[in-house]
Amino acid sequence: MDFKELLKKDYIILDGAMGTMLQARGLKLGGIPELMNFEAPEIIEEIYKEYLNAGSNIIYTNTFGANRYKLAHCDRTVEEVITKAVSIAKEATKGGDALVALDLGPIGQLLEPTGSLSFNDAYEYYKEEVLAGVKAGADLIVLETQTDLLEVKAALLAVKENSSLPVLVTMTFEKNMRTFTGCNISSMALTLTGLGADAIGVNCSLGPEELLPIVEEMRKWTNLPLIVKPNAGLPDPLTGEYDVLPEEFSKLMEPMTTLGVKFYGGCCGTNEKYISSLNEMLKKAEFTSPVYDNVCAICSATNTVMINEPRVIGERINPTGKKKFKEALLNNDIDYILNQAITQVEAGAEILDVNVGLPGIDERNMMINTITALQGVVDAPLQIDSTIPEVLEAALRVYNGIPIVNSCNGEEKSMNAVLPLVKKYGACVVGLCLDENGIPKSCDERFQIAKKILNKAMQLGIPKEKVFIDCLTLTASAEQEGVVETLKCLTRVRDELGLKTVLGVSNISFGLPNRELVNQSFLTMALYAGLTLPIINPNIAAMMAAFRAYKLLAGIDSNSVDFIENYSNVILKMDVCDANRTLTDVPPLNKNDIILKENSNTDKSDIETIENNLKHAVFTGMKSEGAVLTRELLEVDGYEPMTLVNKILIPALDSIGDQFEKGTLFLPQLILSASVAQSCFEVIKDKLRSENKSPISKGKIILATVKGDIHDIGKNIVKVLLENYGYTVIDLGKDVDYQTVVDAAIEHKVKLVGLSALMTTTLVSMKETIKLLRENNVDCKVVVGGAVLTPEYAREIGADYYATDAKESVDVAKKVI
Amino acid sequence: MNNIKLSNLNKEECARYLGYKGNSPDERVKNIMDDCEMDIINTAIPRYLYRQFPIEFKANGVEVLGTSLLLTGNSIRNHLEGCSKVFILAATLSGEMDRLIARTQINDMAKAVILDAMAGVAIEQVCDKAEVQMKKEIEGKYFTYRFGIGYGDLPIFLEHEILDVLNASKLIGLCSNESYILTPRKSVLCIIGISDKEIKSMRRGCSTCKLSNRCEFRKRGDRCGF
Fold it and tell me: Quick one: closest CA in B to A206, which residue?
């Protein structure tokens, strides 16, 4: 019998525990269970026989931890362990119908950003196991007890790309309906369904009673057969004994049969008696086909966004027309992008568009780094925006959840390049209503292209609800009659094709005065015409206000709850909302706002007052005041930015640094003041940019937390201080490869490289990095720092300088540059 | 095991982690500390796990019976002197805590630094509360202080095996990477000796600590407090 044949059965019975069975037979805690395949194969076979006699249709090989990471300290290879384990299972099933599943548990270390394992390394670990399992003749593959959705994704891709075997995936949830890494059930089900698992479900952690609500929730988000493999209840903290007996276990499992659960088994604490009891229960249970309504949703690992009502896609992560963003990309300043993300989410964006395309940078790498970093700090699902299929695929691989791909168009070439990727990774896609002939003028022609894209997607097996259509916004000033065509097209796509729609809104007002007013009005019209996903700048209060007001008026914001929450006691000003200000800070609109400000005639004593106030703001750590006062000073005719820097900011910082050194002022105060200075510098840089002058920089410095180390807060403090003193910091992040440091040092021609390490175990990486810099004759000095470092050790590993704290690293920078 | 809830995080301890050496933070920093305390209580998901094992002193180390574990080095041998059993404790504030600290670093570095220190206070509180439970379970015994893996000359490379002994990745989501950094970051893995007799006051002093020549606290003229 093969898996396909087996699936015809109403219910499929899996096996019970392996680990606790082995412990009952003498395996020591901390011992490697997979070595039992060699040391006592007869025991393993005996356990299988018991499960097979009890009615198991599938048995799991004893390979839960048979990966290269976990087997590192034993003398057996992954292939040896897997070959042996599969052969024992095969031997046990000989002459029967039962199938052998290659069982793969988690690798045992966490993926970035919580841990330091990269997606690609995780993939390679699983690939090795999968290849060995296929070679050994496993009938199917099981991924179980997983808690990190991204790790499961790596594993599932490794299975799909290196075998044609069926694959079952189960994750482990807590009572709070999340895994240890915070992954929720909807995101898990949507993602694994999208990636093509054959069945999904839940195993371990809880007993059948506690798992029932989890399975109920999972049912809502997938049409796949479900798997349930609970523990024998909960363990007693003192004895480790589980508290549910076999008969009770199968009785508690009975309600699962009404939810379309197809696969039944047991995890920790269960044995053949539990399987036998399950078998008896299922013989009598009536099979009910699962009920499932298609849902349209996208997700990150921790947050699912249903596309069942209008949602805002934030447009700010995009360098087009933004000098500052381009600079950030060139300097690999990921923090700048993360800041954009956090600000947009706080302003109300539920999805973030991510476009990092810029001539002169490696867009693929930048996209991977950006997505990885974004996933570490925001929950909002992402829309991956690139015109290059290789970039899209790289992003789709590392994305943790179901994203939107932006975009493909009606050209055959575009559809053939993009849609297969969308299918493979289970993503949603934006189809643009244009083709090789450009953007059609009429609604009807655009509608035909939308239809063509939908048909092509469906031919490839992409579910209809995953296709969103962009009817395209034309500029009203240039093509006024096109506005109505776009609106008509939105309505037709919604009504006739039943699809959700996307639209970049801001383009409508290009070339017109008072653009926000036009954008705001168009947004309301488009939403009414059928727009589901407006791509806008959520930091503009007026746009979010129009959006929320529409939802209120259209009856989507039921009882106006959301609107009232956001706008009670708030007076709206139609202006860009400063990231550091809340709506309540904005003064009411009055006629003064529309009177052009006259040239200010600030006299000398006023200037002195402002300067003193600014110094005070730096000393006391008042961030927004610092920025406001800087702006005031720069508005004074003839006041030079460098005067401000040299006369106020640097002396203030020096004095604070001295006090810190003397121990009269402490780290939080130092950083508070540094943050004020940073906000002042931002204002200065903005001013210089607006005057097309190059931003002030004393020179570039590279900072990195070394390979293997993931403690980066110290390095980040140093970064803030160095930037204060006018240095441009190229921040390579944490866990940085030796070669990456060398490459960056050469590329940016830096004079100083700063390395940080916190663990005694990672000091060696610091040494290796310095060695590689020297071997490559990179003409730079190296400063090192970190809790476990000493000046002696710093000398020993070839560093030029040692800095005890952030203040000292500034002193070093002054010496070198 | 009962759920542990965080409460009233020790601000003086937090200030000490931040290098205040007995000085009192100003009002502004105190206010940020209050915010951080609330954030941590609302965000961290304290998880912990402990198991009790008998031990036996062998020539090559201390054997943890029923497991594959052999604790080597003089520090742990001295630490467990007079003990017949140990508790091994693993505790974490969860990945949510790491995410919050990472996110805060993006737009408020000063708060992030305080949050990081306060999370250090929080994980110690989880351990303290877990110890209260342990003591309830075996009354009338005496406990040593918590001995971290890698402390003294107890090899840090035992960390992976100890996590396996506790099945910590499966039960509380606690792992460790190739550099033996516990992940999630705000976590503790330690050994507590159990003795029938009173244990002579053995505070961890700098003189017995192998890290004393490179200790962050000592560099700034302070002590870590153990």
Answer: B171
